[in-house]
TrEMBL record:
Residues 16-158 form the EamA domain. The keyword Translocase does not apply. PANTHER family: EAMA DOMAIN-CONTAINING PROTEIN, INNER MEMBRANE TRANSPORTER. The chain crosses the membrane at residues 14-34, 46-66, 86-105, 114-134, 140-159. Belongs to the EamA transporter family. This is EamA domain-containing protein. It is found in: Membrane. Pfam families: EamA (PF00892). It is a multi-pass membrane protein. It comes from the Bacteria. Keywords: Membrane, Transmembrane, Transmembrane helix. GO terms for cellular component: membrane.
Length: 161
């Protein structure tokens, strides 16, 4: 039976955001496997430093080439301006939320199993909603249903048989 052009078009019509989530999940799995089994002799600080550096370089290139970042930087007069505050927030979040958490995550991978360490990532939706509440964002029932679906799925997968 031959497929019509419309059926093929529908098959190739992929939600890019859903694809990004799938790719991120695969990257988490590959990352944990590499750290646990191939980089076990390297200190977590060194792994984290290289990870942040290699992720930061393309990010910096994109920032400089495809945004008006350099114009905004040149217009900063004090750190009290909106741009200055934003840059300080990025610096603090990049340091504490990313680099330090990555060091602890890499230590956790080395000291425990890869499966246990990966389970830490399941808490990300919980903290995302907590920060949204602190920030005063409008949360709907859909947000909480999504959280329950993620955590419920994890629970069902990990039930001892």
């Amino acid at each position: 039976m031959a497929s019509s052009g419309e059926e093929i078009s529908n098959l190739l019509n992929i939600n890019s955001w859903a694809l990004a989530v799938l790719v991120a999940t695969i990257c988490y799995a590959v990352n944990i496997h590499l750290i646990k089994y191939w980089l076990s002799e390297i200190k977590p600080l060194a792994i984290s430093s290289l990870t942040v550096t290699f992720a930061g370089l393309p990010g910096l290139a994109g920032l400089l080439l495809f945004t008006d970042f350099t114009h905004k930087i040149s217009s900063i007069t004090t750190l009290e301006s909106g741009v200055g505050k934003s840059l300080m927030a990025i610096l603090v979040l990049g340091t504490f939320s990313t680099a330090i958490a990555l060091i602890f995550f890499n230590k956790l991978i080395k000291k425990t199993s890869a499966v246990f360490a990966s389970s830490v990532t399941y808490l990300i939706p919980v903290f995302a909603i907590a920060w949204a509440i602190v920030d005063g964002e409008a949360l709907t029932a859909v947000h909480f249903m999504g959280l329950v679906a993620v955590l419920g799925g994890i629970f069902l997968i990990n039930i001892k048989k």
